[in-house]
Amino acid sequence: MELFGYYRSTSSYRVRIALALKQLEVQQLPVNLLKGEQREAHFLALNPQGRVPALKIDSGELLVQSPAIIEYLEEVYPQPALLPQDPVRRAQARGVAALIGCDIHPLHNVSVLNQLRALGHDDAEVNQWIGHWISQGLAAVEQLIGDQGFCFGDEPGLADVYLIPQLYAAERFNIDLSGFPRIRRVAALAETHSAFAQAHPSRQPDAP
Amino acid sequence: MELFGYYRSTSSYRVRIALALKQLEVQQLPVNLLKGEQREAHFLALNPQGRVPALKIDSGELLVQSPAIIEYLEEVYPQPALLPQDPVRRAQARGVAALIGCDIHPLHNVSVLNQLRALGHDDAEVNQWIGHWISQGLAAVEQLIGDQGFCFGDEPGLADVYLIPQLYAAERFNIDLSGFPRIRRVAALAETHSAFAQAHPSRQPDAP
After folding, report:
1. Do B101 and A102 touch (CB under 8 A)?
2. Whether A105 and A185 share a structural domain
3. Which of A24, A86, A94, B65 counts the most CB atoms within 10 A of its CB?
4. What's residue A149's pLDDT?
5. Half-sphere exposure at residue A102, Cβ-oriented, CA atoms within 13 angstroms
6. B140 at the A interface (CB within 8 A)?
């Protein structure tokens, strides 16, 4: 498999964690978003939306959108499982993943920040915007996750795959996490886990 | 089951379509987003994020986030299926759903539009913002869906569950769909389908 991604992209980072948890080998093909490589003709020919991540599977087909890619990996490479067996518990884990994937991350995607700057907002206003969405979203996540271990128990799962990259973004944007003890517990635990370490932006081939 | 929703909410509309396609009965409990009922204490006690939709299942547990709710319905009430059997085709359908659910809808959610107004943007600027994200996102959807029938074939599925509510929003915001013939074909077909008719905002108990 080949992964088109960018070291600092939150959604690429999610896919890297899922691949690492499942111990799947992948060739990384970095797409430099700051240089606009995602809008170059050869990449648009592959993925018309011009976004990362995109996963080329061994049959040659290209899968797009991190939620779809991660569910694909879970279906085709079921062990270790990212989701529990019980449908309600699966929905709880997917609920936290969707809250992060729909209600937090899209609001501070690089394309949104560029649009805000085009509307005349300076860095202070853009950072306030980012802080608003991340803080509000993580406050909801804090109430939905469990009291010990990873988000939902002793083993990392789908919610952790989404939360850890979101916390990397929160750190970049200097978000105060002191009010979120459960989230900080999960973050500390993930730091000790080899799959999360392997997927970290600083460890990627395109990291500066 | 009880569905907390709002007639005009894009994500509530998705869940209503999924329920209708699977012919599941649900009691609707409207939450008036314009009156701020989602921020009232009794609703926040149920769903700390203060958002709709939320589905109370018969065991009493509350499921949140439309992507998680719809996957739950697919797992517990598998027929008729919203997703095909083949993992790659499942990923393609989920890719379109995620594109709409992550890259279009979150950018014109009512909370985001309120935040833009708080930053001093007038209706014209807010409408331009909305148009930018819907048009750009639908242009990508147009390239990802199939050449006949619903998004991916003769029967409606997950991508249609997301697309039709997004088109309702596009219509409200006067987005030009003339460049998207595949999308317009799906919209015309859905208009003839009873489940989509039943789930339409105009048919809900809280519609004006």
Report:
1. yes
2. yes
3. B65
4. 98
5. 28
6. yes
